[in-house]
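Can anyone check this?
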Amino acid sequence: MTRAEQRKFREQLLDLARRVRSDVDSASEETLKAQGGEASGSLSNVPLHLADLATDQFEHEVSLSLLESKSHILEEITDALERIERNDYGVCERCLKDIPRRRLEAMPFARYCVPCAEQQEREDLTGTG
């Protein structure tokens, strides 16, 4: 991969990191803010109905899951930026072959080529490897 291509991907990763970081900040704020009670002017933080409690809990779990996912993507972006600095960006970490440009354009923080990513996913699902 040429230095110009690496610079292009670096800028793309930095832009993506800014957007994801903004999403993480917003999700953190939304997830961690007080629900019901004091925030709504009520005397209690407990919803009045069990259905409201269940809905609040479900929404909180969804928000936490999204926050976790975005945080993981941010870690992957950081790792990709480090690979650019080490000059091994765009090389599959399993087979050591070049990751196709189309894959990097779609997912610039990819650490595996498609066949190796599929194999890694299978291993993660089965608990092998």
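Reply from J.R.: I decoded it. Residues 33 and 39 are 8 Å apart (CA to CA).
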